[in-house]
Please model this.
Amino acid sequence: MSGTYRSTRAIHRRDSTGKGALMQRTTTVILLALAITGCATKQYGRLAPLSSLEMGAYNCRDIAIEISKIDAFDQQIREQAGFDGRSALGVLGDFGIGNSMAKGGAEKSSIERRRQLEALSSQRGCTKVPLADPATTATTAPAT
Model:
């Protein structure tokens, strides 16, 4: 009879191991899903503050070009800030706080660089500079 008892116990042990494995897989899937939502934070770029070399080297045209780049960066932030799958996952992971912080950091870097460039522009006495290349837009005198 002890042999029957052992085999019955082994069967129950295999059954409970199967349930345990299912529970372990379920737990793993849930933890993985939570980890993925944590990685769903949108990645915005950052603009570096104006360096002392840039401050010394930029002329009015360079400043206008850099401000134009900031405008493009700001537009990219606005486009990326729209609601998409990463927004939904970010809301699930951290209630959207990570996305908001990332966007705020990008906007702050943009504002700071723009402020520095506008101050440099004022210091240099720049007026609105056309961004077209003078070599390609130069007019020639008509041939006689």
